[in-house]
Amino acid sequence: RRYPPGPKWLPIVGNFLEFRRRLSEIGYHHLVWKEFSEEYGDVVGLKMGRNLVVAVFGAEAVKEVLTREEFDGRPDGFFFRLRTFGKRLGIVFSDGQFWQKQRKFSMQHLRNFGFGRKEMEEKIEEETKDLIAVFKKQCSEPIWMHTAFDVSVLNVLWAMMAGERFNINDERLRKLLKIVHDAFRLTDMSGGMLNQLPFLRFIAPETCGYNQLVDVLVRMWEFLQETISEHRKTLCSSHARDLIDAFLQKMDIQSDSSFTDDQLMSLCLDLFMAGSETTSNTLGFSVVYMLQFPEVQKKVQDEMDEVVGRNRWPTLQDRIKLKYTEAVLMEIQRRANIPPLGIAHRATRDVSLFDYRIPEGTIVLTSLYSVHMDHKFWKDPLAFRPERFLNKEGNLEVDEKYFAPFGYGKRRCLGESLAKANYFLFFTALLHNFYLEKDCDGPEPQLEGYDGVTISPKPFRAKLIPRTD
Ligand code: HEM
């Protein structure tokens, strides 16, 4: 068995230069990979600097990788360790027993603090009320919408993690979230230039993104350190107020050496980053789609008026009846492909995949984009057509093999229930309260966003017209 097909490797850099050349023409990492798949098939093998990188395409191959234990590893290397003090820590880029333990701990304690339960919904409702009130105050002018949900979305997670919330206009947090957005645009899922050719940080620290990345990390560490120190000072051994407290208590019992100061910081960093960026971008794009497809916006509002009425706001209990609205939310996720390549996996031993041999340590990328844009299954994948998720009777019909915005398998998104609840409640609250219209004096809202680990909406404003009827 042989390594998957791909372009010829050059000494030292492998396919690095060819990838960069294509990227400068095409503009998006996932579309460069798509081009490779058109030339070489559903399993493509490259060498990027020192890393072997295999990418898989189509529902069959993606599901195969995401459900096989031997692909449950995460990449290692300079870029991935930079975030976590040169060690393999955190939850997103750790693996093996360490990851299993940390994932279980985080899930269990987030649940204790409301995650996936009624308390979470109540918390989201509070945040939606607050955000809508801010919009109502500001809506005489068009409002910048691409990052409008950032703080509110983070507040829901932060309540469970750190027991606090931020004012929607909190300047420091807004700045922090802005640099997190920028950081997501600096690199790509294979670890980017810094992982492939780490010596570049000495020769071209600016161009390879090293300086900017370190700047983001230092600011994040400072912010998290303050929060953790505050918790340490006021910790009570018999009562945990939030996830940080629960972690500190576990550290104090000293029953498990994987619970350390560095790990607490890394865990917070991972949850902060994974939890804020993806959901805010999805909500940002949902506004773009509603501006570009006003007829869909109207149908959502009509459905909500009929099912929920005008006397109260939609709740999670209404979801089951708001079928068209749910179909719209799914279609936005399918079409916008916020994490187009999911999160990189790693082969934990030599494995065979279909007819190919994948050596231990190979980084494996799963093109969720290719699943959502599969021509055979979706027929017209580029079209924005929420009805594709509804059957003849008007009921939701989803084939999970072809719709996997949160991935599958053991490394499936840990925040899925929170993300879905946030997405539904913020979106419906916005459309319940306002008609959304384009701001003709501002930049046109773009369906295609900025490239990066996650695709993010380009800046745009919208006119929010209160629905008074
Ligand atoms: C719409 C919003 C979101 C989307 C589309 C999304 C999508 C994903 C995807 C595709 C993965 C990778 C699965 C894989 O490795 O194969 C992932 C992993 C992850 N997500 Fe999310 N996510 C979202 C929101 C959240 C939120 C709110 C949190 C916060 C709690 C979160 C935390 C994580 C974590 C910690 C992982 C890594 C899990 C692991 O490696 O075991 N995500 N997410």
TrEMBL record:
Coiled-coil-forming residues are none
**Gene Ontology MF term list:** heme binding; iron ion binding; oxidoreductase activity, acting on paired donors, with incorporation or reduction of molecular oxygen, reduced flavin or flavoprotein as one donor, and incorporation of one atom of oxygen; steroid hydroxylase activity
Q: Which residues bind heme?
A: C413
Q: Does the keyword Nucleus apply?
A: no
Report the record's Gene Ontology biological process terms.
organic acid metabolic process; steroid metabolic process; xenobiotic metabolic process
CDD domains tied to this protein? CYP15A1-like (cd20651)
Family matches, as InterPro entries: Cyt_P450, Cyt_P450_CS, Cyt_P450_E_grp-I, Cyt_P450_sf, Cytochrome_P450_fam2
Query: What Gene3D superfamilies does the database record attribute to this sequence?
Result: Cytochrome P450
What UniProt keywords apply to this chain's record, in alphabetical order?
Answer: Heme, Iron, Metal-binding, Monooxygenase, Oxidoreductase, Signal
State the GO CC annotations: cytoplasm
Which co-factors does it depend on?
heme
What does the sequence similarity comment in the record state about its family? Belongs to the cytochrome P450 family.
Q: Could you identify this protein by its name?
A: Cytochrome P450 15A1
Q: Which organism is it from?
A: Tribolium castaneum (Red flour beetle)
